[in-house]
Design a protein that fits this description.
The complex is a heterodimer.
Chain A (H helix, E strand, L loop, with lengths): L1 E5 L3 H11 L3 E6 L2 H10 L3 E4 L5 H6 L7 E4 L4 H14 L3 E6 L2 H9 L8 E4 H13 L4 E7 L4 E7 L11 H4 L5 E8 L2 E3 L12 E6 L1 H11 L9 E4 L3 H12 L5 E4 L2 H10 L4 E4 L5 H6 L7 E4 L4 H14 L3 E5 L5 H7 L4 E3 L1 H10 L7 E7 L4 E7 L11 H5 L6 E8 L2 E3 L12 E7 L3 H7 L1
Parallel strand pairs in A: 1-2, 1-4, 2-3, 4-5, 5-6, 12-13, 12-15, 13-14, 15-16, 16-17
Antiparallel strand pairs in A: 7-8, 8-11, 9-10, 9-11, 18-19, 19-22, 20-21, 20-22
Helix pairs in contact in A: 1-14, 6-9, 6-14
Chain B lengths: L1 H5 L4 H14 L1 H13 L5 H18 L8 H26 L7 H12 L15 H29 L6 H6 L11 H28 L8 H11 L17 H14 L3 H8 L4 H5 L1 H23 L6 H16 L14 H13 L12 H19 L3 E2 L2 E3 L2 E3 L1 H31 L6 H12 L20 H15 L3 H6 L2 H5 L1
Antiparallel strand pairs in B: 2-3
Helix pairs in contact in B: 2-4, 2-5, 3-4, 3-7, 4-5, 5-6, 5-7, 6-7, 6-20, 7-9, 7-10, 9-10, 9-11, 9-12, 11-15, 14-15, 14-16, 15-16, 17-18, 18-19, 18-20
The chains are: A alpha/beta, B mainly alpha.
Chain lengths: ~450, ~500
């Protein structure tokens, strides 16, 4: 497949990196330094130029491309680039936008602006935060099959009752599958007798109810959150508050700019908007931020986010979720006390990547720095799965693959050895990256 | 004249528009003359007035007319009500029956009519012909229609004491979006108003026909429909609604209630869309105030053994509360004899009023709701000083400036009420008339808030005749000021209105 990517920022280069191994990738960027550094680091064709300029696009031979991804940091540039590409090529176009306003327009008429798929990073980030906020100890949450199936990555805390239990003992939920354990940076496919230890990260796939039940088993003392404080009323903070309101929460939102705070207060009827500086210790004291169940830091700037979360943690907040704009900081943040660092760029790259799985994957979640992926696939007639039981199929697919859940219509089916897969079913599979291309062909 | 040259108000335009209204007044006058002809009563009071108003109207209309600005709007609203009150008094003077032959009394009665107050100075109801009584009712019906149109077309544009809220609340749902043009909206509301009146006439006649309202005549039905839907309260009967059967009294309650309901919500109701009404914060508030006060009144009536049967307690408490709260002013019993506790519930009801965008007077539930919500917000901010929490009505944000206007309006109403009370007491003392504090408060509230009947000697089955002429003049002025939401009159008193 020939892929053209406009913009070699964090999102663009992340996508380029994951595609370069198996596809022809062309990367266009306006910045000569970035183009040059790309030349040495990745096996791609870098072109210096303006991605919305038709000449540049023709130089990149967009007409022959199968996939066109506009992933610069500028919404308008991305949309215009897709529009331009659409004129000269039949490639499937994906535009990354930050602001939901373009997404709203696009959703009214899919295909508008010449964009075949639009990814809104701020909304994706807010969705990720809201998913994480509801599940104590969760590190990553993704939904599949229109919300019927959830994939969650849990960290097992030292004091957890499931630490030192075997998988068979811990898994008492009918509609839950333990897909994998990440231990010391390695993927372990669990067996019934595999013993869970503190510090393990468990990838669980199942119905949202069973995920929630498992979450409370891992950390029984943690109730579901009631009191959520969001710091920073930018687009991500606003969308997070809005989604929380939709789920019946009444969050508090701290915004420093008075006009913006007023705007937010008018838009968010169930949210208490506080017009103040989130690093003001007196405010944190007065508003009892330390008592909050979850603090979400969604300021524009990573350093401020870190400061705000560390202050809140120091005051006693149970759980801190931080937006980290520079993806590389994520690990560092988590090392110094942030519970979960959410990267809008990573979320965006993940969302876009699913279109590159031969465009077969309905949805994709990337696990722990590309060690593995969780894919949602629709079973077609050529699949090795059709009309066979899981036990039979196991022989034909490599190690490192776990079928986590199956949905048939609106029904959730828990895969067991004797479960028969039918054409048209959606399967959610955990796949180790090493066997990824082999598996996607077979399934 | 150099003075005129400095004026910054295009008073000619305002007067010209008043002229148009006066000219139009000829139609109801001629109509009433026809009724007089039917009952073989003197035609002169109405025909003479018709000629007078036509002449005045035509003369004023000839003045240069320009576009109506904000100031001209204020002036026009204030002058229109004054002019109709004056013209409306003429038939009483020409007829010269009873105590309405006195010019102050005639003007009081007419003002009380057109401001939909319902306070009367008539001592002997039999002294006046049916046509004169119908004219009293008709004045109120026109006053109700006028305020409905003015409220939608003019007041909501002039930002008066939060009256623009009606527009805010309506941005998505109510008033101005009914139709794009003010004229079409006014016509629509007019039809709704007329339809409601017709429905009430039909209801009364139907009750009469099936024997539930033995003494109901077409005349009664029309005269009361005119004053119920306009939440005004004049009755050709000395005993007001007490002259009719319980069934008729029950049937009248909904019409008073609907007359004080936002007509835009009523419009949507007729369109089979009740959700607007159900979801309106103000409607729910209005309904709960009515029910709450009724409950309290009923409890106090039971406690004081006023009535023996449950139906009586329920009917009299609900009827009186709805009548006073909507500022109609009918009565089914002389509530002057009620226990102090029950009476004070009615006194409280006077200050509520019904919904904005209706024919109701007083402070109105919309303003009280904003006051309650904003006060609750202020308490919340005591605990969270950094919180920004807009006041919302039915989900819509109320601007802070509007909240301030509403507070100012409520405060202003309170101040005027207190000053008027003090004036009533001192003026009575001047002429050696003993008027109690509560009576004075009742009469002040009942006139300034356009309710009608008060307590003591100014009760529902009595009249305002005993007040000194000076007090009556004060009442006349304040009925006028109160009806058009205070501000349009008060701004006329500021030099800035005329000069800068």
């Amino acid at each position: 497949m020939r892929v053209v990517i406009v913009g070699a920022g964090e999102v663009g280069s992340t996508i380029a990196e994951s595609l370069a191994k198996s596809h022809d990738v062309v990367v266009i960027d306006i910045d000569s330094d970035r183009v040059e550094s790309l030349t040495y680091s990745l096996d791609v064709l870098p072109i210096e130029g303006d991605g919305s300029d038709i000449d540049t696009l023709e130089e990149a031979d967009v007409a022959d491309a199968d996939l066109f991804i506009a992933s610069t940091d500028d919404d308008e540039t991305n949309i215009v680039a897709c529009g331009a590409a659409n004129v000269v090529s039949d490639a499937f176009t994906i535009a990354r936008v930050k602001s939901p306003k373009y997404l709203q327009a696009w959703q009214r008429a899919r295909g508008a602006f010449g964009v075949d798929f639009m990814v809104c990073s701020d909304l994706l980030t807010a969705e990720a935060i809201v998913g994480l906020a509801g599940l104590p100890t969760a590190q990553d949450v993704d939904t599949f099959a229109d919300g019927l199936v959830q994939m969650t990555e849990f960290e097992i805390p030292a004091e957890s009752p499931v630490a030192d239990q075997t998988v068979a003992e811990a898994d008492r939920f009918d509609s839950l599958t333990f897909a994998a354990i990440i231990r010391d940076d390695h993927v372990v496919i669990p067996r019934g007798d595999t013993r869970l230890t503190a510090g393990d990260e468990v990838i669980a796939i199942g119905s949202p109810d069973s995920i929630r039940a498992f979450s409370s088993e891992i950390a029984p003392e943690e109730q579901g959150p009631e009191d959520v404080v969001i710091v920073g009323g930018g687009e991500i903070g606003y969308q997070t508050a809005r989604l929380l309101e939709e789920r019946g929460f009444s969050p508090r939102l701290i915004e420093q700019d008075e006009d913006r705070a007023r705007w937010l207060a008018e838009k968010l009827p169930s949210t208490t908007v506080l017009n103040s500086d989130a690093t003001d210790q007196e405010l944190l004291e007065r508003e009892n931020v330390g008592m909050a169940d979850v603090v979400v830091a969604a300021l524009e700037n990573d350093q401020q986010n870190l400061l705000a979360t560390l202050l809140a943690k120091r005051k006693g907040t149970d759980r801190a979720i931080t937006v980290v704009n520079t993806g590389d900081f994520a690990e560092l943040f988590e090392a110094v006390g942030v519970d979960v660092a959410v990267s809008p760029r990573k979320a965006t790259a993940e969302e876009i990547t699913r279109f590159t799985r031969a465009r077969r994957a309905e949805n994709v979640s990337i696990i722990e720095g590309d060690k593995a992926e969780v894919l949602e696939l629709e079973v077609d007639p050529d699949s090795v799965l059709v009309d066979r039981s899981i036990r039979d199929v196991a022989a034909d697919i490599p190690e490192g693959v776990v079928i986590g859940a199956i949905t048939r219509g609106d029904e959730h089916i828990t895969p067991r050895g004797d479960t028969i897969v039918r054409e048209g079913d959606h399967v959610v599979v955990f796949v180790d990256t090493e066997v990824l291309s082999e598996v996607t062909e077979k399934l | 004249m150099s003075f005129a040259g400095e004026l910054r108000v295009d008073w000619a335009t305002s007067l010209s528009l008043v002229g148009t209204v006066l000219k139009a007044l000829t139609v109801p006058l001629v109509g009433t003359a026809l009724v007089a002809l039917w009952y073989r009563e003197p035609l002169a009071p109405f025909l003479a007035t018709a000629v007078l108003t036509l002449a005045a109207g035509v003369a004023l209309e000839r003045l240069d007319r320009d576009d109506l600005g904000i100031r001209e709007g204020f002036l026009m609203v204030a002058l229109t009500w004054l002019a109709i009150a004056v013209v409306g008094a003429v038939p009483f003077l020409v007829a010269g029956d009873g105590n309405l032959a006195n010019p102050v009394n005639a003007l009081f009665e007419s003002t009380s009519g057109v401001t939909t107050t319902g306070a009367t100075v008539v001592e002997n109801f039999d002294a006046h012909g049916r046509s004169i009584h119908l004219w009293r009712s008709l004045l109120q019906w026109m006053g109700g229609l006028g305020i409905l149109v003015i409220a939608v077309a003019v007041l909501s544009q002039l930002s008066i004491g939060g009256a623009q809220l009606m527009e805010t609340e309506s941005q998505t749902q109510d008033v101005n979006k009914l139709t794009p043009s003010i004229e079409a909206t006014a016509r629509l509301l007019g039809w709704l108003y007329a339809g409601l009146t017709g429905l009430m006439v039909a209801t009364w006649l139907a009750l009469g026909a099936v024997g539930l309202g033995p003494n109901v005549t077409l005349y009664d039905a029309v005269a009361h429909a005119f004053t119920a839907v306009s939440t005004a309260g004049f009755s050709p009967r000395a005993e007001s609604l007490g002259a009719f059967s319980p069934a008729v009294q029950w049937a009248t309650i909904p019409f008073m209630f609907l007359g004080a309901t936002n007509f835009v919500l009523l419009y949507h109701l007729t369109r089979g869309n009740p959700s607007r009404m159900v979801n309106s914060d103000e409607f729910r508030f209005y309904l709960s105030v009515v029910l709450g006060l009724t409950g309290l009144t009923a409890a106090f009536l039971v406690a004081s053994d006023q009535f023996t049967r449950f139906e009586q307690v329920a009917r009299h408490s609900l009827f009186q509360v709805v009548s006073i709260l909507t500022t109609t002013g009918y009565a089914t019993v002389d509530f002057v004899d009620w226990s102090p506790a029950a009476k004070h519930m009615l006194f409280l009801a006077m200050f509520s009023g019904g919904m904005a965008g209706s024919t109701t007077c007083s402070i109105k539930t919309l303003r009280w709701l904003v006051v309650v919500k904003s006060f609750r917000r202020d308490l919340f901010r005591e605990i969270h000083p950094d919180a920004i929490r807009p006041v919302r009505l039915s989900g819509q944000v109320v601007e802070e400036g509007v909240v301030r206007d509403v507070y100012a309006y409520v405060l202003l109403s309170g101040i005027i009420f207190v000053l008027l009370t003090v004036f009533v007491v001192t003026d009575a003392a001047r002429v050696g008339l003993g008027i109690g504090e509560f009576e004075a408060m009742g009469a002040s509230a009942a006139t300034f808030l356009n309710v009608g009947p008060a307590f003591g000697d100014a009760g529902p089955f009595d009249s305002y005749d005993f007040f000194p002429a000076t007090t009556k003049v004060a009442f006349i002025l304040l009925m006028w000021i109160g009806r058009i939401e205070i501000i349009p009159v008060l701004v006329l008193l500021t030099p800035a209105f005329w000069r800068s």
